[in-house]
Amino acid sequence: MGEKVIYHHIPREVFAEFDFPGAGDLANTFEFNRLYIPNRQADLAECRKLYPAMQSFEAWLRANKAKF
Asked: For residues 48 and 11, what is the distance between their CA atoms, to the nearest angstrom?
């Protein structure tokens, strides 16, 4: 999309206080993933076996750029 994207970590405690329903649950989910699932490469390889047409996020975003 031609925009630079910079990742900024949001601590669980901060995310949990966001003003939308389920923010605390979502914060806990993200924290669990951060602590106990540090590398998604095996998951991605399995997904590609099950769904060979699966796109990378970058490819999907390029294909859907007009929607943003």
From this structure: 31
